[in-house]
Amino acid sequence: xxxxxxxxxxxxxxxxxxxxxxxxxxxxxxxxxxxxxxxxxxxxxxxxxxxxxxxxxxxxxxxxxxxxxxxxxxxxxxxxxxxxxxxxxxxxxxxxxxxxxxxxxxxxxxxxxxxxxxxxxxxxxxxxxxxxxxxxxxxxxxxxxxxxxxxxxxxxxxxxxxxxxxxxxxxxxxxxxxxxxxxxxxxxxxxxxxxxxxxxxxxxxxxxxxxxxxxxxxxxxxxxxxxxxxxxxxxxxxxxxxxxxxxxxxxxxxxxxxxxxxxxxxxxxxxxxxxxxxxxxxxxxxxxxxxxxxxxxxxxxxxxxxxxxxxxxxxxxxxxxxxxxxxxxxxxxxxxxxxxxxxxxxxxxxxxxxxxxxxxxxxxxxxxxxxxxxxxxxxxxxxxxxxxxxxxxxxxxxxxxxxxxxxxxxxxxxxxxxxx
Length: 420
Fold this sequence. Notes:
Elements: H1 6-14, E1 21-23, E2 34-40, H2 47-61, E3 65-71, H3 77-83, E4 87-90, H4 96-103, E5 111-114, H5 127-134, E6 139-149, H6 156-174, E7 186-189, H7 190-196, H8 205-215, E8 220-227, H9 237-241, H10 245-259, H11 262-281, E9 289-291, E10 294-296, H12 298-324, H13 330-338, H14 341-368, H15 379-411
Parallel strand pairs: 2-3, 2-5, 3-4, 6-8
Antiparallel strand pairs: 1-4, 5-7, 6-7, 9-10
Helix pairs in contact: 2-5, 6-10, 8-10, 11-12, 12-13, 12-15, 14-15
């Protein structure tokens, strides 16, 4: 083992086999600006050529860089990669996303470019990524559709259905403008990658990275890349995993998209449902309303109450979804301002007491009739239903206020959101 980092060499020698082990090449770049971080699993057929591509791309781009192969192979991939001039980080076989998590502590460059080690992405074409980084981009996404796709490189299912549809869904959910969210070749600053805190262990890391780049407000650029078909004698990881692998990967990525944007399904729809519920409830609080041949009665009111309660709680869930997925803290600060503790608590109490007041006539009538309800046609019944809505809304708002302020226990107070 050779290089200019004795501590790294010592760590590689003493770490147990279950821990990452760093192997240094004979000629190691002392101060890389760019780190090419590439997972590899049994890629001995192509790894030597691939590392050569990486060095060629770095030279053409005019930057000092390192090639870091994150290897969990059972063949000669590690030895061949090291002999070709790459650093090799030996890790247990734990998944594609996990490889990037393991590699972060060993990355030295300020800009990281990721991809596959099978010569399907052309790492000789690094200049567009470096140019975007030098112009201030924090996240540089490759696009096969903006570049070139060799015949036979992408199955028709992926090229014309899977990738376009999932890309459209992500753009629709997040207001982004990506053209190829599944492109495996992408670049990101090391600081942004560390701040991201990737957790995905498998294929979904790709969507997690894209989604977090949006959530973090990273300056993002898209550059064209060239995509080639698998070399003779090599099976892609999808093919190795069986015909269901692409569908599993698609479902995992969709799940990630939905989880990271729960507010899309909860917040605005919740406001709409709550408003519709109030529209049905409030006009009927004084009794049934007849419009032409249609009578809106207590059952209409009950339906409105159900919509309003569903909408209110959906809105609260949407607020929490924003808070949990917000890297800037702006969402939490906003909801802490809107639901200032004293103001929100007083409003909740007033709403709850108003509900009690509306329910009193119904309770009195219930007692006077010897524990039986009157016919559902009078004002008393309608006021009682309105009271139930107020009781529920007041208590739910109080609970949400407590919960949103409890986030200060985990994240600490924000001065701009504090106040009574």
